[in-house]
Amino acid sequence: MTLNASIRAALFAGGLAACGATAALAHHGWAWTEDGLFELTGTVTAVYFGNPHPTLDVDVEGETWRVDLAPPRASANAGFTEDTAEVGDEVTAIGNRSRDQAELSMKASRIVIDGETYDVYPNRAPTN
User: Fold this and answer.
1) Residues 127 and 89: beta-carbon distance below 8 Å
2) Bridge partner list, 106
3) 110: how many CB neighbours lie within 10 A of its CB?
4) Which of 33, 104, 111 is CA-nearest to residue 63?
5) Spatial CB neighbours of 125, under 8 Å, sequence gap ≥ 6
6) Cα separation of 63 and 8, whole Å?
7) Contact predicate 50/81, CB 8 Å
8) Residue 2 in 3-state DSSP?
9) How many Å apart are CA 107 and CA 89, to the nearest integer?
10) Sign of the torsion angle spanned by Cα atoms 28, 71, 40, 125
11) Is 86 left (phi over 0), alpha (psi -120 to 50) or beta?
12) DSSP one-letter code for 43
């Protein structure tokens, strides 16, 4: 392989890696969410507790919302573990909804289940 071909191959591989990193970061952080707190209450229809972050699917008046939580360790540190929520539980999620109004998705800073409050992002949870 010539030096010129090696450089082209390295640049191509770097470009692919950058594209993959951009896609992986698309829903991490808070940039994809609106400013201001958003609250929804509904019934848990699915629970996922794993990387990159736990999620709850919540039925709200016939629509399924995806509620993203903090990464597993931070959620567990807040007391929210894989056994905290079950299908059929009523949940209130407080956080920030997606900027894309067509997307029924939010990132929760606080979850309330059976009267128990879990501040998975305590620095972003409401102060009340």
Assistant:
1) no
2) 67, 97
3) 20
4) 104
5) 94, 109, 110, 119
6) 48
7) no
8) coil
9) 19
10) negative
11) beta
12) E
**Average pLDDT over every residue of 86-99:** 97
> Concatenated DSSP letters for 11-40?
HHHHHHHHHHHHHHTTTSSSTTB-SS-EEE
Amino acid at 61: E
* Cα distance between residue 75 and residue 103, in whole Å: 23
- State residue 39 phi and psi, 5-degree precision: -130, 135
**Cα gap 30→109, rounded to integer Å:** 11
Residue tagged 């991490």 (tokens): 28
Amino acid at 124: R
Q: What percent of the chain has pLDDT over 90?
A: 72
Mean pLDDT over residues 41-49, rounded? 98
Q: Pull the structure tokens for residue 121.
A: 């992002």
* pTM summary value: 0.78
